[in-house]
Give the backbone structure.
Amino acid sequence: MKPETQVLVRPARNVHGTVALPGDKSISHRYAMLSGIADGPSRLENYSTGADCASTLGCMRALGVTWERKGSVIEVHGRGLSLARPAEPLDCGNSGSTMRMLSGIVAGQNFTSEMIGDESLSRRPMQRVITPLTEMGARIESQEGKPPLRITGGTLKAIDYKMPVASAQVKSCLLFAALFAEGETRIEEPLRTRDHGEVALRAFGVNVESKSSGPGTVARIRGGQRLRGIEARVPGDLSSAAFFLCAAALFPGSQLLLPNLLMNPTRARLLDILMQMGLRISVTQLEQVHGETVGSLQVQGSPLKGATIAGADSAALIDEIPVLAAIAPYTTQGLEVRDAKELRVKESDRIASVASNLRLMGAQVEEREDGLKIPGSQTLHGAELDSFGDHRIAMAFAIAALRAQGETLIRGAESAAISYPAFFETLDQIVER
Ligand code: S3P
């Protein structure tokens, strides 16, 4: 673990420049896992630089997958569906994605493995993967539904499963486990969540059917299918770009160019919301890369209105709500967030973390069980804030600090490295003071 660092953020006048984002975290995790169980080599360019995706690679190595890093490229030597019994516990670090999605793959192996995580991950709910994987035939011990997990795998049975929580991590976990099951697995999600698991499986040559069903989707996948390695460039991370988009939204004269960004429709709701709020965004050079939509964004700031995020939008924007909430006091009408109870079980309780930091900056905030109500047209002052060990909270408040009066100190700023190690340097390059 990195030593605790503090970062001082001074107010800005404007935001201007070009940012090339590191590879998307969600896609990087999935590509690393699937290339490990593919037949033949894979080449992953622009792999996420975040510590979370390094945790996934570390676990894959412990499971007998060899890989090398060559600059921003990871070359993975797939070993097919059978992995090696790990000599030590699989260390997932801070990464819920690693633990939840990889549990689907180790549940299909003929050995027992233990999955551990840091203090934050050890508090996070895992019953959502334990219940269906147990139904498929895996034996899983946990600490009352929390990590560490001890998973004894083997050949699994296909299931027909209706997910009680809308979670792309759980959906991917089950799609991956289904590869090791006899028969066809059917997974129904209550709301549409990001579809990178389905898209990545197809890129590796697997047949996955997916259909809309009301506000959610139903996916079907047959067991026993083999994967073939791929050569891919991971598109820039849209959830990391969100911080810069929100920074641009704070200054009417701002201009940003974000090339090669992920534009997957299940992730791009942020762009609609920011446009509704007043940010001017144009997208060029749209293309499909291994089933993922990629494009270049040109962004111009203008005065910001408020927004309401509720229902399916709360699931679609779950990673971007902290930064939208952090800039909400500077909008004219404020922000209301509902139906976002999942925020309470992320890397920190993000509803409480956002409310606490905004109040320290002098903002009025109403904290609710499933969301927040933040009035607009407020003036914030600089303050000493805490990241709560949560990367998205550290970065969200570095953005809020740009429009505050006076300097803001962010304690625990090192946590930004979980998804975006170069965040503070990059922010400095585009901010004009
Ligand atoms: C992710 C899904 C979301 C998101 C997380 C990444 C993914 O979590 O918050 O950062 O890659 O599938 P849930 O599946 O728990 O909603």
Q: What stands out?
A: The chain has a mean pLDDT of 97. The first strand starts at residue 6 and ends at 9. Residues 52 and 106 are 18 Å apart (CA to CA).
